[in-house]
């Protein structure tokens, strides 16, 4: 009887969690395609959250692309500084990380904003992106702590200055972060600083910057893929699920998606991030991107020769089929 009661309570809690993170019914499903060879894509957007300036800029944009029948999975990072028309057909331009902020009216309507970003990513990449998930970095930090941290292989050493608080009006001071090449176990704060660090050491220190390439938009995109892979990979581990149930309070304030809980769970179980052939695709100056300057003096990212066809062509070549 006790086990039955516990099971009912757990089920109720899970269903309540599913209702909190999505407008879709937790047990509903739209995944008839999950047994086919049709590729399905999930856009993961990371943003700072809170009420300060820039809280709704999506500084992390990663598409998880998966073929359900084979579980072949690819991760595609889109540079936050990509210069795009925003809003569509307006003749106005911004970095792509501002698309959600503009369309959502600075976070007032998450659904409209996220749908607009998914459409923009589809247009840029040539991928059919209908599913999306938003992650608040502050809550994601708590989530990583709740599952006991994540294990990450750091491919390149670097150091950087990192804001002590996302809201400079609350605390404008800095901390120094230093990551050495090799396997590392990271708590939430360490993982988020690893994924987001981009300021050189001269911002807060006289210590020389080590490996400036890691602080570029492209370097950050690659690191964000590693953290997302580590966190999602741990969720797939059934031994972590009891901790996951305990993390639901923080996750309810962290995640918002247009997928039902049932479909999100099925997608996470189908994808295979540990396959050695999993594709990690980054758009950078070594392949199809170039650095430019906007009319107002911002450093921006554009496709080489302003040839936007290069991006979907490159992604199509690199996807794990």
Would you kindly provide a brief summary of this structure?
By secondary structure, this protein is an alpha+beta fold. Helix content is 34%, strand content 23%.
Structure commentary:
This protein has 321 residues and is α+β, with helices and mostly antiparallel strands. It has helices at 2-21, 99-103, 110-125, 137-146, 188-196, 217-235, 241-246, 248-252, 261-270, 310-318, and strands spanning 40-47, 58-67, 72-77, 83-85, 93-95, 131-136, 150-154, 158-163, 174-179, 182-186, 255-257, 279-282, 289-293, 299-303. A hairpin with a 7-residue loop joins strand 4 and strand 5. The longest helix has 20 residues, at 2-21. It is globular. The chain starts with a helix and ends with a helix.
Secondary-structure element series: HEEEEEHHEHEEEEHHHHEHEEEH
Biggest sheet strand line-up: 11-6-1-2-3-12
| Dominant shape | globular
Distance between the termini: 48 Å
Q: What percent of residues are in strands? A: 15-25%
For the residues shown, what is the average pLDDT? Answer: 88
Low-confidence stretches: 1-9
Question: What percent of the residues sit in helical stretches (DSSP H or I)?
Answer: 25-40%
Give me the secondary-structure category.
alpha+beta
- Oligomer designation: single chain
Radius of gyration, whole Å: 20 Å
Number of strands: 14
Helical run tally:
10
Sheet of most strands = 6 strands, mixed
């Amino acid at each position: 009887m006790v086990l039955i009661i516990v099971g009912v309570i757990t089920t109720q809690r899970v269903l309540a969690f599913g209702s909190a993170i999505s407008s879709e019914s937790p047990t509903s499903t739209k995944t008839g395609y999950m047994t086919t060879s049709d590729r399905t894509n999930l856009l993961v957007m990371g943003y700072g959250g809170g009420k300060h300036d820039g809280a709704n800029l999506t500084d992390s944009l990663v598409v998880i692309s998966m073929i359900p029948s084979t579980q072949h999975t690819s991760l595609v990072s889109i540079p936050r500084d990509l210069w795009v028309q925003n809003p569509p057909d307006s003749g106005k331009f911004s970095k792509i990380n501002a698309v959600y902020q503009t369309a959502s009216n600075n976070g007032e309507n998450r659904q409209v904003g996220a749908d607009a970003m998914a459409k923009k990513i589809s247009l840029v990449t040539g991928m059919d992106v209908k599913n999306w998930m938003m992650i608040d970095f502050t809550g994601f930090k708590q989530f990583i702590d709740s599952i006991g941290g994540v294990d990450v292989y750091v491919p390149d050493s670097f150091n950087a200055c990192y804001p002590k608080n996302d809201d400079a009006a609350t605390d404008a001071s800095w901390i120094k972060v230093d990551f050495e090449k090799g396997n590392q176990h990271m708590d939430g704060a360490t993982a988020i600083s690893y994924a987001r660090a981009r300021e050189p050491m001269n911002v807060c220190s006289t210590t020389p910057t080590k490996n400036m390439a890691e602080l570029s938009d492209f370097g950050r995109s690659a690191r964000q893929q590693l953290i997302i892979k580590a966190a999602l990979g741990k969720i797939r581990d059934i031994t972590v699920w009891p901790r996951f149930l305990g993390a639901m309070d923080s996750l309810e304030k962290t995640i918002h998606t247009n997928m039902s809980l049932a479909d999100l769970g099925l997608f996470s179980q189908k994808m295979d991030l540990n396959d050695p052939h999993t594709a990690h695709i980054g758009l950078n100056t070594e392949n199809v991107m170039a650095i430019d300057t906007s009319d107002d003096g911002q450093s921006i990212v554009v496709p080489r020769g302003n040839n936007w066809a290069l991006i979907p062509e490159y992604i199509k070549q690199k996807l794990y089929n």
